[in-house]
Queue: 2 jobs
Job 1
Amino acid sequence: MSKFQLAIDGPAGAGKSSVSKEVAKRLGLDHIDTGAMYRAVTLQGLRLGIDFKTETDFTYVEDIDIDYKNNSIYLNGECVDKEIRTSLVANNVSVVAKQKIVRDKMVFIQKQIAENSNIVMDGRDIGYNVLPNADLKIFLNASLEIRAKRRLKDIQATGIDIELSELMKQIQERDEKDSTRKINPLKKAEDAIELDTTNMNVEQSVEAIISLTRKRDR
Ligand code: CDP
């Protein structure tokens, strides 16, 4: 495939990460999970003992090194794939991701990575902000209940017990914060194609996107 950039946005638990990873693998493209970057910045804040309920100074982001390569996220050179997936990180990430200083740095890194690559990038603001010239833009969505059920499965697989209703509340709160923030909110790009995966599994979602890339490629 010649140079191709695919932007995938959508709310929490819509399947962006797993679907994007598989699409990238099948099309021979790199995959960048931008949410993992914001999660890594959050993890570092927690490690520094920052209280995100009261903190207003996020300059610590200037001193950290974030890299995403070979499907893994690196914080100051340490692979933190597992550490960024805790509920503590998930419940604090929206506060970190709305800071201008954080977004400026992450979007700069993301644009730099994308500059000369064939890429699938997933996040919240990719289609209209990070890759406005992407060849194809997808907005992946699904009902709140199904998104929470998918996330419940992931969480239970790590041995943690949580009620579906509690998880639905957490996801809804995070979506609300991500959609209403001033800078780079969660938003569908005007030219994005919306794909509702409520009744689709990962394989069906992957196939639907690959079929759209073929149509775009002609
Ligand atoms: O995997 P999940 O859908 O739960 O979220 P994620 O993609 O790991 O993203 C975690 C958080 O990072 C989101 O809730 C947003 O607050 C933030 N984010 C963002 O602001 N902009 C992006 N491009 C990607 C993620």
Note: The pocket of cytidine-5'-diphosphate is lined by residues 12-13, 16-17, 34-35, 38-39, 93-94, 97, 123-126, 174, 178 (CB under 6 Å).
Job 2
Amino acid sequence: MRIGHGYDVHRLREGRKLILCGVEIPFSLGLDGHSDADVAVHALMDALLGAAALGDIGLLFPDNDPAYAGADSLVLLAQVMEKIRERGYEICNLDLTILAQRPKLSPYREAMRENLCRVCGLEMDQVNVKATTEEKLGFTGQGLGMAAHCVCLLKESVR
Ligand code: MG
């Protein structure tokens, strides 16, 4: 088995959609970035790449490459899954934590899990999505941005 951890941060600003795990969430602010800035999927991809010793998403999808401007992070996740499978690994489980002061994310949690299951080819009991505030402390607490952590476990595929 191989463990991986991923971490990502994006700023919040006006005039952007808020997309987390591919779910568009109604909110006055959205995450800023070159792609759709889906901070949760970015942390997940880095956890997968980390577990497989395949580098990170900055290496795979450079943020100065116009090909990834406005990119749907779920499409990028599908490409990461291809690489994981090519290396002969499959996912045991993944556990994602989103750090956000607002909005309340629990109403969207199941839709987020379903998106991750669909793209990664997993069952619901292999995918956990959690959200927490940081008690108004730091940049997430002050509503300046959002962060996400993900851990995943990979195992060698049975062929
Ligand atoms: Mg990112």
Note: Residues 8, 10, 33, 39, 42 surround magnesium ion (CB under 6 Å).
